[in-house]
Amino acid sequence: MGPPSSSWRSASTFQGLRCWFTDVPSAVRGKPSWLLASCRGCVPAERCIPRTCGSEDQILCLVLGPWRYQLEDESAHLDEMPLMMSEEGFENEEGDYHTLPRARLTRRRGGLEWFVCGGWKFLCSSCCDWLINICQRKKELKARTVWLGCPEKCEEKHPRNSIKNQKYNVFTFIPGVLYEQFKFFLNLYFLVVSCSQFVPALKIGYLYTYWAPLGFVLAVTVVREAIDEFRRFQRDKDVNSQLYSKLTVRGKVQVKSSDIQVGDLIIVEKNQRIPSDMVFLRTSEKAGSCFIRTDQLDGETDWKLKVAVSCTQRLPALGDLFSISAYVYAQKPQLDIHSFEGTFTREDCDPPIHESLSIENTLWASTVVASGTVIGVVIYTGKETRSVMNTSNPKNKVGLLDLELNQLTKALFLALVALSVVMVTLQGFVGPWYRNLFRFLLLFSYIIPISLRVNLDMGKAAYGWMMMKDENIPGTVVRTSTIPEELGRLVYLLTDKTGTLTQNEMVFKRLHLGTVSYGTDTMDEIQSHLMNSYSQVHSQAAGNTPGSAPLRRAPSSAPKIRKSVSSRIHEAVKALALCHNVTPVYESRAGVTGETEFAEADQDFSDENRTYQASSPDECGNMAREGLRTLVVARRALTEEQYQDFESRYSQAKLSVHDRTLKVAAVVESLEREMELLCLTGVEDQLQADVRPTLEMLRNAGIKIWMLTGDKLETATCIAKSSHLVSRTQDIHVFRPVTSRGEAHLELNALRRKHDCALVISGDSLEVCLKYYQHELVELACQCPAVVCCRCSPTQKAHVVKLLQQHTGRRTCAVGDGGNDVSMIQAADCGIGIEGKEGRQASLAADFSITQFRHIGRLLVVHGRNSYKRSAALGQFVMHRGLIISTMQAVFSSVFYFASVPLYQGFLMVGYATVYTMFPVFSLVLDQDVKPEMAMLYPELYKDLTKGRALSFKTFLIWVLISIYQGAILMYGALVLFESEFVHVVAISFTALILTELLMVALTVRTWHWLMVVAELLSLGCYVASLAFLNEYFGKSLPESLLAMWHLMFFIVTS
Q1: Pair (794, 727) in one structural domain
Q2: Last residue of some domain: 795, 825, 850?
Q3: Would you say 971 and 894 are in contact if contact means Cβ atoms under 8 Å apart?
Q4: Residue 568: which pLDDT band, with cuts at 50, 70 and 90?
Q5: Do residues 1038 and 925 both lie within one domain?
Q6: How far apart are CA 214 and CA 682, in angstroms?
Q7: Distance from C-alpha of 380 to C-alpha of 1001, rounded to nearest angstrom
Q8: Which of 405, 446, 485, 1042 has its CB 3.0 to 4.6 Å from that of 882, i.e. a possible disulfide?
Q9: In this predicted structure, what is the pLDDT of residue 114?
Q10: Sheet holding 304-307, edge to edge
Q11: What are the start-end ranges of the H helices in 723-762?
Q12: pLDDT of 603 over the 50 cut
């Protein structure tokens, strides 16, 4: 008997999955027969799987459709899919699911409860997103047909081929900079207070006491932003103004990069940057192919082979491109830089010629031609190119310390309002009480000191100067001076591999022949074996005279002779010498130039000008225990018929439009059978200097390191082992390739069952998992001691950084050296660029630029740590300086019948915030609790900084209590001990205040610097000297009051 129909609630309906919940008594729970009988019959009963849910009295019926959980609806709640479902459950539909852990089920709120508990935020954000989409509606990207040399035939308007990295224009610069400044409560509060002084009834002091500090901060910010914006404008102008040869009916013409249009035929010379995405039509190389460097696109420094369209390559001359009627059909612009689908069609032939286009026929923008001269037809320009689509817009980075100080500022503002209300209440709301309320707000406005921002900005500039002047990390450049303390709060470090951890220099380490292995110390034996082998071959060739009979093979009936070591080495080395991707590149001598139609091979063949460029081979992962990149070398002899059959099937597979990659791989796999094993080679990718100790230091500092690379899985795994990012005894879980939700589900379960293992995952699998199990994947990955993401596109790198920020709330740092790392560097809270072989693009886009990876250790554990602790101490001391004088003002007003009269006016307030106390307080930027050597020796000291204990509400409240106590003691002491000299209470209390601040700075310092002593003496001297000029405030009889100095010193010491 089933439950009443009214108790059923349809929770949600998905494609391939339907769920119902029902409340049942515990007596019948766990009986599949009853549950199957109660099902609505939407699918056959044998596929209805009972599943215990999070509630004790609920059963979840999961109905498996033929798609095996391939949910296409991204809005499906992740927790409604039980993650801990066993692998056997997917393979056997009749498995016992009651033994599995219970799935998590989130109870959905509804109605008013949902609105109060966060629904209003969702509604507001949805409305804002809708308005933004309406105002900034993006044009839908579509596939296109591009006619060769005919831009006017384009059916749609395409974007200009210009690069723009500027954040503002002429009209938005001032509003944009002001918005970035006044979106923080601290600056907005200063602006309101300063503007209030234009109202006569609210005027407290002189205008310059409010507007001078605020104007100084704004002027510095505007000038700094203007300089940065002008530099970005100059860099964009240089790139957009580069000249290229455009092929027209009348010949070649020079055009700027920004004037190139879709359909133009562009000629790109050797070592010239490709200005836009193009289809490769023709090259000066006789082979019909060329090499390009893609280090600024995917981070790989090995050259990529590109093949010209055979139909256009066979044309006799360049001008014949305009004598044919041909077009290129290209897919819509997309992010993937490793794939392309299109067709080339020539219509003026009978029958028309159709040629399939793939990634090997493309020339992406921001790559560089490495050999020959190429001609291509432009298919994507501007923001539709692969490089621009994989580059995120730069954001204004704000440090966590600034956000914390902003929160403390809000708390101080609430205290300010509360204190003003109390004063007006005790006053009895006499007269225009609202005016008195505003006057009290202005009197106590120093609770939030306007000098806080000035001191912090100057301190950050000092930290940046110290980093750049550190002799232990030469070449360091601070490009973003607003976030140096972020280097002391990092929890996740995401680094590139090629050029960042490695030098990208391969060293041949081992040759294994099965029974014997040769290393670097025995390479001379290989050389001697080769000399013996070739000498035997030459002697046999010399003995085989023209008149003698040729050598014949031994009869087949003769027994097989085991090959000697020399012959095996000879065959192995010959295979390595013949089958490789090493390409000789010929550099022309000085004064030797050639036309674009001449092949490079016709210019210079001398060994003096020859270099070699190798393309990364396919590695064998199971032989990489020593961190070597390994390669198995084998051979197979083919007959003429076998080769012809393979060539025809291979050519047919390459012309396929659908599943081309799979078909080509199947044909190649059919050839790689019954092969003779020759040798196994081991190559080491040289690491940068001190990479291993640097990574160990960062791990001891509590920083989790992730490696994001565009390289292959095996290569990334080898580097992770050799760099000790993953220890040799540590287990590595290689995330298998997944394409559906069900496969991702099983792999995540397999990862969850592993403990203390490093994770290696590819970009494709990462994309699938993030689509369905974003939260679960990030949660599991964060538990791993190390994570390696291979085959990552630039956009995926940035996406991983943003996921860590959203799901963990921790500070992230991205390190890279290539153009493909720019998006990741800009997305991270702190970006570090390394000037390397891949150019300076990452270095220019980063917040901090270094020359070697090992400099990161000192940059973080020394400079980052000092910057954070110094900024925290400086910020709290400046707030203490404002709180103590506001407390004295409150005591003064309460003694004099709650009058809204200022205690200190004019220059006294300006001098208190500047010459009297600024130098000693600012000298805290030189303070340090431990020496740099100790910080490097004990990186565990860094780990405590991530908890934010140097600046927290606890430390803030301690400083508030200290300020209230000192302010009360100073003011009441001046009033009580100097009652007979009441006319000098202002001078006495102000002198005690200055001396107290100087003593507090001296007591706070942990390591004295000679500049600190100078600052203390200079401030004290300035105050003593100013007594002679401040008769307006202190009176002429001030020296007589100083006779009671012992009274003054007594309550100063008491405070």
Answers
A1: yes
A2: 850
A3: no
A4: confident
A5: yes
A6: 64
A7: 62
A8: 446
A9: 59
A10: 304-307, 289-293, 368-369
A11: 741-752
A12: no
Has residue 236 got a pLDDT over 80? yes
Is residue 493 packed enough to be buried (19+ CB in 10 Å), middle (13-18) or exposed (0-12)? buried
Residue among 402, 496, 685, 829 flagged as catalytic:
496
CB 268 within 8 A of CB 243: no
Same domain for 656 and 787, yes or no, is: no
Instruction: Give the mean model confidence (pLDDT) for residues 767-795.
Output: 90
> Structural domain of residue 658, as residue ranges?
637-674
Active site (annotated) includes residue 277: no
The mean pLDDT value for 833-860 works out to: 85
> pLDDT per residue over 117-134, tens digit each?
556 556 666 666 666 565
Q: 1 in helix, strand or coil?
A: coil
Q: Kindly state whether residue 1004 falls inside one of the protein's structural domains.
A: yes
Helix or strand holding residue 414 (H, E): helix 400-427
C-alpha separations of 625 from 514, 682, 689, 725, 753 in Å: 17, 11, 21, 14, 24
> How far apart are the C-alpha atoms of 163 and 124, rounded to whole Å?
34
Do both 321 and 462 map to the same domain?
Answer: no
User: Are the CB atoms for 472 and 455 separated by under 8 Å?
Assistant: no
> Is 521 flagged in the annotation as binding?
no
Q: Is 259 annotated as a binding residue?
A: no
Q: What is the pLDDT of residue 39?
A: 39
Amino acid letter, 686: Q
What's the rounded mean pLDDT across residues 810-833? Answer: 89
Residue 203 annotated as binding site: no
605 marked among binding-site residues: yes
Q: Each residue of 477-508: pLDDT tens digit? A: 998 888 999 999 999 999 988 778 887 677 88
Residue type, 475: G
pLDDT digits 0-9 by tens, 912-953:
877 888 888 888 899 988 999 999 999 999 988 888 888 888
pLDDT at 20 over 70: no
Residue 184: inside a domain: yes
Determine whether the annotation assigns residue 817 to a binding site: yes
Q: What is the 3-state secondary structure (H, E, C) of 956-996?
A: HHHHHHHHHHHHHHHHHHHHHHCCCCHHHHHHHHHHHHHHH
| Angle CA 519–524–530, to nearest 5 | 105
Kindly state the DSSP code that residue 252 receives in the 8-state scheme: E
Annotated binding-site residue? 205? no
Residues 6+ apart with CB under 8 A from 134: none
| Six-digit token string for 306 | 């590109």
Residue 709 assigned as binding residue? yes
Per the domain annotation, does 910 fall within a domain?
yes
CA separation, residue 587 to residues 119, 274, 304, 433, 599 (Å): 66, 20, 19, 86, 12
Whether 809 and 933 map to the same domain: the answer is no
Q: How many CA atoms lie within 13 A of 450 on its CB side?
A: 26
Q: Is 602 annotated as a binding residue?
A: no
Q: Is the dihedral of CA 563, 565, 566, 567 positive or negative?
A: positive
Count of the separate structural domains present in the chain? 5
What 3-state class would DSSP assign to 149?
coil
DSSP per-residue codes, 909-958? HHHHHTTTTHHHHHGGGG--SS-HHHHHH-THHHHGGGGTTTSSHHHHHH
Q: Half-sphere exposure (CA, 13 Å, Cβ side) for 532?
A: 12
**Does residue 115 have a pLDDT over 60?**
no
- Could you report the per-residue pLDDT of 256-294, keeping only the tens digit for each? 999 999 999 999 999 899 999 999 999 988 888 898 988
Rounded to whole angstroms, how far apart are CA atoms 395 and 379? 30
- 353 and 461 inside one domain: no
Do 655 and 487 contact (CB within 8 A), yes or no?
Answer: no
Q: Which helix (H) or strand (E) holds 685?
A: strand 676-687
Is 685 labeled as ligand-binding? no
> Could you tell me if residue 54 is inside a domain?
no
Last residue of a domain, one of 238, 272, 296: 238
Are 762 and 879 found together in one domain?
Answer: no
Q: Tell me: the pLDDT tens digits for 422-473?
A: 988 888 887 778 888 888 888 888 888 777 877 888 899 899 999 999 999 9
Question: pLDDT averaged over the chain?
Answer: 77
